[in-house]
Amino acid sequence: MPWWGTAAAVLAAVVALVAWRTAAAAPKPPQPPPAPGSTSSDARPDPGTSEGYWTPERMREARHAPMPEDE
Fold this sequence. Notes:
It is a single chain. This protein is mostly helical. It has one domain. About 45% of the residues lie in helices and about 0% in strands. The chain has helices spanning about 5-25, 40-45, 55-60.
């Protein structure tokens, strides 16, 4: 292969490398907005809604959550 063929192959490799690095560094598109009808309250309900759940009877019957032992 003549020297210009080698030079063309090296130039093509450099161009491909630069294009790949540019594409990798390009900013990612923003995330789509949440679907209509879904709100943050779906994931995090109002804390006041749990007040009716913890009745005195449930508080008496409640058990501690198991905790890992310290080493």
